[in-house]
Amino acid sequence: MIVIEGCFALHLSQEKRTEEHMDNHNNPHPREEEKKDVFSDEPDLEDFLSEEQEDAPARKKARSFFAKFMAYAIALSLVISVLAVWVRVFNMPSFSFLEKSNELSKIENIQNYKEAVVTIEGNGVKGTGFNIAEEGTIVTNYHVIENMTSITVIFPSGDIMQATVTEQFPDLDIAMLQVEGTDLPYLEIKEGKGWGAGDPIYVIGNPLAYNQIVMEGDISKSEDRLYLTAPIEKGNSGSPVIDSDGKVIGVVYAMTVPAIGRGKEPEGLAVPVNEIPVLQ
């Protein structure tokens, strides 16, 4: 039994070797087929390119959407900025002082005062000034003309003149200009100090986007500066403060900004003419 089993085992072993030999003869490179089987499931390069090409339109669409979104956002921001300016210029208080100005401008004396109040322009800046002599001596604020390389003075009559700076008082925020003219309308300067708290006044100037606006108020306090209850806006710098006799008693240069919650209204600030050496 042992021998038989041994022979049987040997026979099987020989048969197995014979089968392996035949397999090797039929497939001399078995490992190459195994390698092929290992990599047979990997996608081809064309598959990657195809997927990229399919994703390209989606990415392009996303970029296009983002670009449009940014363009709309910028446009909206510009529109809001413009609207903010227009709201500032055309708000209800503006219409209120326009109505008041039109009413005051019907007074003959005020019509005459307005003829001597000029617009000063240069380098994109606009302010107010007023003439005090027939030959053309203009009073305004120093900060109005400080950075102007060319100064243009426009009278209500439509006369446009180039001006030169003749005097500067930065500490007082006052500047004197000269234009070439004759028989120009002018305002008279009050001599001495004949005003006090409670006195009525007029202010004529070019606030915001308007020209020749007349406002009335009172002197609330008179010290080294005049405090005025008349509404003052940007563009009023250099406006004359005129008393009930039609004389200039001050030059507007700023306005106060009360602390929030105190219930106080802003007030105009003016340099009294008796503080300006060349006007005395």
Helix proportion range: 25-40%
CATH top level label of the domain at 189-279: Mainly Beta
- Give the SSE order as H and E letters: HHHHHEEEHEEEEEEEEEE
- Count of helix runs: 6
CATH topology of the domain at 189-279: the name is Thrombin, subunit H
Residue windows where pLDDT falls under 50 for at least 5 positions? 1-26, 32-39
User: Biggest β-sheet, characterized?
Assistant: 6 strands, antiparallel, barrel
CATH superfamily of the domain at 189-279: Trypsin-like serine proteases
Distance between the termini: 150 Å
The chain-level mean pLDDT equals: 81
Which structural class fits the helix and strand makeup?
alpha+beta
The name of the CATH architecture of the domain at 189-279 is: Beta Barrel
Per DSSP, what share of the residues sits in E-state strands of 2 or more residues?
A: 25-35%
Described by the principal axes of the CA atoms, the overall outline is elongated
Radius of gyration: 45 Å
Give the strand order of the largest sheet, numbering strands 1, 2, ... along the chain. 1-2-3-6-5-4
Total DSSP E strands: 13
Protein name: Trypsin-like peptidase domain-containing protein
Biased composition (Basic and acidic residues): 15-39
Pfam families: Trypsin_2
Keywords: Hydrolase, Membrane, Protease, Serine protease, Transmembrane, Transmembrane helix
